[in-house]
User: Which sequence fits this backbone?
């Protein structure tokens, strides 16, 4: 049999040239489209749907560019004597585990026309593409030690809030995934193939000596049922159609009359988003702010000249309907809506607080826990503005829950052992309060700057509520107290704080005088007889306070919790 001429010749090397480019759509593991610099250096899958940024950079707010000019990439293969020009060379899908990535755009590698990129993995020819995809799903986003190939990347500060179409959900110790096991990864588990609607991010590595466990968040894609999307859109359009062109005026009224008393809305962030695209703000929050601002319709010279074209309950009804669907993906916007939803104006004939305040407070607590507000963010690797806002919203939730429990005599949803959020300070409340010049036309002059008095009142309300919470947790202990008179100035927005003080004082006196039985009345040594003169003295201060409330102060924003506060104080007086 004649011998093939190729058997007498040295093996020839076949050369394939692949021209790569950047800027167009790029499929997963594409050879013809070059990955961006960040994905190339991190060795992550670079997927571009239409044009840059890629999914990785887009989801994390990174600059998606490629500094390499289109160059020729050369791959070489060893051809076998029995192969002609149209046949495939042997398969060898090996990449050294510890080998450094190529520093030059020209490199050598064994491939086939159907091969894919393989990084940090040793594969056999029988390995399926799907298996390789599964192996490549998870990589480290925040390396615990700098990589020698990432020296050009500056450290990034990430946010749990501003990820488009994604929300962050807190993972507790009893979650499906073991947080201590997840902490053994260098920092984070990321789905790179974009086939799973979620990632896991570590925001705090934990502290073994302090007994603090690591903390992770699910980063989930906001995927809703079509019915949910339609319902939210209907509610959003209904709210805007009700307020018509008065929306900006209602926002101005809200920040003029409500925000100084209950400063839980992120003012500048809201105004910025409202100016650029009001529909980017959840309908629940827009509806609640419109509704609370509408209470002061007649305080605006222009609005008072016309009849209000809607009722407050119409806005709150649409806002609550939307919120029920929005809580599929809770975030800080929707948390603010939960807190405002409780302050819908009560019916004029209301004598007792309705159970609705209790259920809405439970909703607020659940939302806060889902987004991790009950965990202290001080050491997290997130933006400083988010740390401050998260702390402020948690303590607003604590206030809501504690006073709602007093309204109905129920135990609070929040127990002192189940949260670790650090206390607020003035700087936390200062954030986002100074309105920049380009947004100042949206609020009154009095609302453009940070008000120290507003922040101080909120801080004192938090402290007072902590005292009340301790009182409730201890089931009304018999403890000494030092009660002194207070200077009353209800015209400066301090009315709700004073009323909360008197209500807390009433509960303490009631506990000290317990039980208020007929036998106790006849026993000179009973607690009732012992503390009764003190109770009478302290209620004299309450009478002085009520006598000094002006009509203007009475018509200001007090909040629903003050209904219970005033009821407690009046009953003690009786």
Assistant:
């Amino acid at each position: 049999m004649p011998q093939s001429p190729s058997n007498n010749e040295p093996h020839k090397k076949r050369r394939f040239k692949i021209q790569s480019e950047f800027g167009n759509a790029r499929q997963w593991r594409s050879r013809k489209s070059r990955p961006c610099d960040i994905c190339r250096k991190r060795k992550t899958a670079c997927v571009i749907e239409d044009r840059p940024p890629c999914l990785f950079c887009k989801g994390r707010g990174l600059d998606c560019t490629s500094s390499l000019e289109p160059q020729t990439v050369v791959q070489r293969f060893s051809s076998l004597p029995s192969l002609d020009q149209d046949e495939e060379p042997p398969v060898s899908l090996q990449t050294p585990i510890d080998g450094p990535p190529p520093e030059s755009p020209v490199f050598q590698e064994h491939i086939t026309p159907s091969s894919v990129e393989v990084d940090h993995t040793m594969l056999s020819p029988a390995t399926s593409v799907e298996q390789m995809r599964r192996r490549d799903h998870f990589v480290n986003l925040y390396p615990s030690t700098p990589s020698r190939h990432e020296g050009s990347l500056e450290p990034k500060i990430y946010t749990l809030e501003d990820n488009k179409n994604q929300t962050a959900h807190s993972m507790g110790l009893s979650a499906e995934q073991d947080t201590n096991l997840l902490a053994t990864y260098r920092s984070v588990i990321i789905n790179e193939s974009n086939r799973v609607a979620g990632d896991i991010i570590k925001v705090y590595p934990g502290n073994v000596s302090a007994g603090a466990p690591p903390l992770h968040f699910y980063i989930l894609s906001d995927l809703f049922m079509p019915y949910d999307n339609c319902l939210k859109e209907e509610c959003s359009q209904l709210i805007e159609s009700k307020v018509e062109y008065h929306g900006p005026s209602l926002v101005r009224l809200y920040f003029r009359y409500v925000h100084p008393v209950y400063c839980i809305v992120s003012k500048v962030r809201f105004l910025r988003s409202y100016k650029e695209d009001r529909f980017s703000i959840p309908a629940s929050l827009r509806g609640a702010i419109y509704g609370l601002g509408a209470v002061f319709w007649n305080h605006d010279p222009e609005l008072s000249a016309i009849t209000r074209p809607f009722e407050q309950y119409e806005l709150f009804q649409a806002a609550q309907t939307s919120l029920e669907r929005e809580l599929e993906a809770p975030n800080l916007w929707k948390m603010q809506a939960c807190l405002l939803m409780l302050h819908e104006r009560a019916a004029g004939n209301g004598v007792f607080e309705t159970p609705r305040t209790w259920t809405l407070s439970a909703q607020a607590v659940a939302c806060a826990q889902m987004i991790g507000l009950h965990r202290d963010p001080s050491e997290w690797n997130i933006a400083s503005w988010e740390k401050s806002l998260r702390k402020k919203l948690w303590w607003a939730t604590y206030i809501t829950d504690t006073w709602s429990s007093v309204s109905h005599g129920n135990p609070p949803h929040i127990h002192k052992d189940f949260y670790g959020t650090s206390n607020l300070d003035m700087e936390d409340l200062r954030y986002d309060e100074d309105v920049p010049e380009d947004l100042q036309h949206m609020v009154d002059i009095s609302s453009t700057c940070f008000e120290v008095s507003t922040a101080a009142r909120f801080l004192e309300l938090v402290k007072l509520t902590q005292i009340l919470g301790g009182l409730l947790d201890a089931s009304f202990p018999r403890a000494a107290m030092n009660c002194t008179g207070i200077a009353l100035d209800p015209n400066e927005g301090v009315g709700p704080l004073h009323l909360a003080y008197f209500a807390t004082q009433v509960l303490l006196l009631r506990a000290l005088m317990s039980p208020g039985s007929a036998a106790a009345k006849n026993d000179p040594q009973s607690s009732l007889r012992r503390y009764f003169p003190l109770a009478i003295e302290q209620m004299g201060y309450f009478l002085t306070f009520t006598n000094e409330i002006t009509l203007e102060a009475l018509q200001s924003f007090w909040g629903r919790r003050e209904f219970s506060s005033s009821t407690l104080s009046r009953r003690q007086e009786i």
Observations:
- Residues 384-408 form the longest helix (25 residues).
- Residues 36 and 66 are 5 Å apart (CA to CA).
